Amino acid sequence: MKALIIVDMLKDFVDGKLANPKAQDMIEPLQRLLAHARREGWVVVFSNDAHQPGDPELKIWGEHAMAGDPGAQVIEELAPRETDIISAKRGYGAFDGTGLDEQLRERGVDEVVITGQHTHICVRHSSYGALLRGYEITIPADAVCAFEGVSEDDALEYLKQTYGATVTSVDELVGSPAKVTV
Ligand code: ZN
Q: Could you give the maximum distance between any two Cα atoms of the chain, in Å?
């Protein structure tokens, strides 16, 4: 079973406090992948920053995606559903202190397709969490993005080299029946 994990596609990270202009380009491919995941019955996870005052990384980035604030909501284009796993996190990694591993195991997930932001920060730490817990990792390059000025290629190469991630594209995941068969 596969899970699509969408990391931090929140208003603050798209056009809010930590806006990333590059994120606009990945909304459409991510929508296509999300629709595909729903059709195929994958588990869908929104791994969302939901910070509390005093969370360590706020020293670095300033306040962002504070729990309950409008900026901590998933962008409207991706519209989470009630059956999705909405997983709140207070640091970079989707698996760090969130209970996500247990939720995925209950549903028989053994492969995670990790998308969202940012390739070199939360996607990276979430990939490490997935590696430690024995999941196969797939990263569609057009459904992740780093900050402007950070090399996307280097960030993806790191995921490949260090975590054994398969780097692919949304078209490949959506288009090829061979690739979506579990
Ligand atoms: Zn954060």
A: 46
b (16+ CB within 10 A) / e for 38-57: eeeebbbbbbbbbbeeebee
Residues with CB under 5 A from ligand 1 (ion): 49
Would the pLDDT of 177 be above 80?
A: no
Minimal CA–CA distance to 162: which of 122, 117, 132, 118?
A: 132
Burial of 167 by CB count in 10 Å (0-12 exposed, 13-18 middle, 19+ buried)?
middle
Give distance in angstroms: CA of 172 to centre of ligand 1.
Answer: 30
As a whole number of angstroms, the distance between CA 111 and CA 130 comes to: 9
Q: How far is the CA of 55 from the centre of ligand 1 (A)?
A: 8
> pLDDT tens digit string along 103-114?
999 999 999 999
49 CA distance to ligand 1 middle (Å): 5
Which domains does the chain show, CATH number per domain? 6-173 (3.40.50.850)
Indicate the average pLDDT of the chain: 95
Nearest Cα residue to 131 out of 114, 116, 151: 114
Q: How far apart are CA 129 and CA 101, in angstroms?
A: 9
Rounded to 5°, angle at Cα 13 from 7 and 18 = 140
Question: What mean pLDDT comes out for the span 64-78?
Answer: 97
Look at residue 176 in the predicted model and tell me its pLDDT. Answer: 59
